[in-house]
């Protein structure tokens, strides 16, 4: 419907996407909701899960070895808060700016990490209640649009993304 539209995909942490949106570098952004962000359109709630490599058991080591995103990450915050509330000792062994970097640390058996359920890949196992790790809250995936002059093509793409990735339970009744 929009043959002259060019899409540029930017995959980075939500804090960077939010900053780019505020600088009007982006028309739309799908991000993990953060307390300091303006409210976007809730697309889905995604479970956070503890993960480890299939061929390793880092969850048995103490202090618990962790692979985390940098300071300011909601995943990191939830993991450290849950471990602290449970009185568990931990040690950060790997910090990466991307889920791919965390996946590499987990696949290598260096540490456990926290992923959104949708980021669990082959070679990674979710740790259940029997692992002794504390429960984690879900995260919110939100869609943000630039605050002014959004083209019809960008709005149509935003609606398509929200529909395709959206949680049917969050859809308005009607």
Based on Cα principal axes, name the global outline.
elongated
- Proportion in β-strands: 15-25%
Strand order of the largest sheet: 5-4-6-3-7
The whole-number mean of residue pLDDT values reads 92
Uncertain stretches of 5 or more adjacent residues: none
> How is the main sheet built?
5 strands, mixed
* Tally of DSSP β-strands: 8
Gap between N and C termini:
27 Å
Q: What's the helical proportion of residues?
A: 25-40%
Succession of helices and strands: HEEEEHEHEEEH
What is the overall number of helices? 4
Radius of gyration: 18 Å
In short:
The chain is α/β, with parallel strands linked by helices and 174 residues long.
Tell me about this structure.
The protein has a five-stranded mixed beta sheet, with helices on both faces. The protein has a three-stranded antiparallel beta sheet with strand order 1-8-2, sandwiched between helices. It has helices at 14-22, 74-85, 99-107, 152-165; strands at residues 28-32, 41-46, 48-53, 64-68, 90-95, 112-116, 124-126, 139-145. The two termini are 27 Å apart. The model has no long low-confidence stretch (mean pLDDT 92). The radius of gyration is 18 Å and the shape is elongated. It contains four helices and eight strands; from the N terminus they run αββββαβαβββα. By secondary structure, it is an alpha/beta fold.
Tell me the layout of helices and strands.
Layout: H1 14-22, E1 28-32, E2 41-46, E3 48-53, E4 64-68, H2 74-85, E5 90-95, H3 99-107, E6 112-116, E7 124-126, E8 139-145, H4 152-165
Parallel strand pairs: 4-5, 4-6
Antiparallel strand pairs: 1-8, 2-8, 3-6, 3-7
């Amino acid at each position: 419907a929009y043959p002259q539209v060019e899409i540029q995909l930017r995959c980075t942490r939500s804090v960077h996407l939010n900053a780019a949106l505020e600088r009007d570098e982006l028309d739309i952004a799908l991000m993990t909701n953060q307390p300091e962000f303006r409210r976007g359109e809730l697309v889905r709630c995604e479970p956070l899960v503890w993960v480890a490599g299939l061929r390793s058991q880092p969850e048995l080591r103490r202090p618990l070895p962790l692979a985390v995103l940098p300071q300011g990450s909601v995943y990191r915050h939830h993991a450290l808060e849950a471990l602290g509330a449970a009185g568990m000792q931990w040690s950060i062994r790997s910090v990466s700016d991307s889920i791919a970097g965390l996946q590499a640390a987990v696949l290598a058996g260096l540490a456990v990490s926290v992923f959104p359920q949708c980021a669990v890949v082959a070679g990674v196992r979710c740790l259940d209640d029997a692992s002794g790790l504390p429960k984690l809250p879900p995260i919110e995936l939100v869609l943000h649009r630039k605050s002014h002059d959004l083209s019809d093509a960008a709005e149509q793409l935003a609606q398509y993304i929200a529909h395709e990735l959206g949680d049917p339970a969050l859809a308005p009744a009607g």
